[in-house]
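Q: What does the predicted 3D structure of non-specific serine/threonine protein kinase look like?
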Amino acid sequence: MNISLVLSAQNDDLAILQALKASWKNTPATWIDGTDYCGGSWDGITCINGRVTAINLTNILLIGELPGDIAQFTELRVLDLSFNKELTGSLTSQIGNLKNLTSLSLNSCGFTGPIPVTIGNLENLLSLSLKSNDFTGPIPASIGSLSKLYWLDLTGNKLTGSIPVSNEITPTGLDMLTNARHFHLGDNQLSGDIPLGLFKSNMKLIHLLLHNNMLTGAIPSTLGLVRTLEIVKLDRNSLSGNVPSNINSLTNLTQLVLANNRLTGPIPNLTGMNVLNYIDLSNNTFDRSKVFPPWFSSLQALMIIKMHKTNLEGELPVGLFSIPQLQIVNLSNNWITRALNISSDHSTQLQLIDLGYNQITDFIQRSQYNTSIGLILVGNPICGESSVVDVFCSITTNTTASYSTPWNNCEPPSCDSGLIPSPNCRCAYPYKGSISFKDPFFSSLRNFSIFMSLQDSLMKFFNNSNLSVDSVALKNPTRNKDDYLVINLEFFPSRARNFNMTEILRINFAFINQTFKPPQLFNVYFFDPDPYNSLLSEEMSGVGSNKHMSSNTKIIIGSGVGGCVVMVLLVLAGFYVFRWKEKAKRAPQQSQSFEFWDQSNMCGGVLQLKGARLFTFEELQKYTNNFSEFNNIGKGGCGMVYKGSLPNGQLIAIKRAKKGSSQGELEFKNEIEILSRFHHKNVVGLIGFCFDRGEHMLVYEYIVNGTLKDSLSGRSGIRLDWTRRLKIALGAARGLQYLHDHADPPIIHRDVKTNNILLDEQLVAKVADFGLSKPLSGANNTHITTEVKGTMLESIMEFVGINHVESTLSTLESCEGGSKDYNSPYDSDSLLSA
């Protein structure tokens, strides 16, 4: 290309930026004429080869309108002006000239008027997100021309008219978006029928959100053609007629919400929808039948059932409450009859059973009612008896414990006005916001380990992305009117008291563009930040700016800083010499302490360590907040397990043996020596140990999702489908193969069970607990013992693990790599529990 043309194009970009600056108030303070806007000095501007390719100015209180000049950025790929509520006016029709645009995000602004038809000219667009504005008029049919579109979000506007589809008159419509995964069109004023032609078998949709509109007519039978769907929300419309009989062909569906419509006909048969975890058909007028739908008990992934006022009739099957992960059942205002039988093998996660205003005459477990489960039977004949005092005959509300990120083993300081203490007890101005999860794979807000896993995942992401976030605080998880999980977030800066503009924009970008991937339990989310008043007030007032400093002031400051640096270096040098001498003095003492432990306790030799750290009692006491009850995360036969945090922020799990524990000195020494040698992703890592003050403590890496047993039993709230179980089994087999064939020395675990397999945040299996392990080598070994210390079932598992690890691993790997029968009649629980 001609150099003069390149320079001319670059000059054009500068002129357009200056035009934007003139059109808007509160542009970044770094937008200064004469500076290199492509050199990284202009906040929110990204360039390639001297041309502007991205404008990211989220949540900085921009005021004004979007001028037509924006269309002259011919190389622009990303335009994100989200969360500027004072950015108003109509969306310029010139937007259609941005032919290279791949992402357009104008969420939570103040735009009004129609969405311009020219938006259909953005042929390279992958993401169109105009959520929470005041757009009016119809959805442009021209959007159907965006053949590459992946994400379409028009939620929360005032759009009217019907959903556009292609026909003889209009050649384009949303039915043409066969590559789109997301149709988010809820909370508008759309009317008319859902078009029969909207859905096609070659579509790749996973989310269909049409809730809270004014749609009428029947649910089209063509919906059943889109087999990729995972979430369908059609609630709060005026839909009528029968639910299509082929609805159960959507076998990948996890959420089905058809509540608050005018649906009639038979209650839909959902047999075969084996991953469905949330169903809400409430407030519809389905036909009454004499038998309660038998297919309910076959849907073993169900967590929440809501069928309030749906004309359900008959006796509840006992197996309904035995669904492993069932948490909430609301079948109130129906015609359920006879005796209620919850049974003793009900789900351990049950929180609420609302059967108010039915025809229930008896309760089998009445005398043994477990009040930890909220049960409502008010309005039933059983509560009409004279002198009834049962608690379930009055409406009670289970209070939900409020979660807040705990202090990180420190004392919260008293901060100056406006500053807030972080979890690491540093005073700062946090960046606040809320994060909403549309379909989390759990409903309990009392399982705090789930929120801790989200916090750990956030910090891991920030560290890997080199974002200057010191810590994250999670507060007050709640459910909003759409039943989405909403968590308040506070991000604390790591290098100063407040974030700068660039850091805020990078954090926003990570969430708005879904760069941050939450743990699998949380799934799809939306981030809604608050204005960062600290940053805005400082930038507008010039606080912290160096541009008005005189040269003399700079010289004085430079000299002072240089002198301080010299003093600090001298102090560090003296401190280093002192520590070196002290370390030399302590070396013999430490050696003697190991020898003393060996001689006094007869443990079979001095410890042979490879990388494990020796902790003092005082250190572990500090890291666990004096072994507080809050930090207690488990109890075993040998003692308590506590969660702690090292000074560098790494989370640890500390197993503290109780006095008189069944694990003696020999087992304690075995576990330290053996585990310090292991380095494998499927074997839990030992960080260190403590035998100070007569204590026996082992310090492990903290594994966020606990034991496999907790997940299989449903106690953890994690849903393990067939694929996840297969990968966990494969990981555990690989860990055992490493122990048997590749460890130095190879060992037999002798206590393999689901309690001793842990799951990290990505559900990777890690073999744990080596107190009963036996090495396969040694000078004094005359034979190898394979005696197993667990139950008979565990003995069988261990025997298979010892003698057939290689063949088992080969089988599992072939299953993982080959075709899987996701409709297998066999219960997937058998893979890991039989």
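A (community wiki): The structure tokens above were generated from the sequence. Residues 551-601 form the longest helix (51 residues). The two ends are 68 Å apart (CA to CA).
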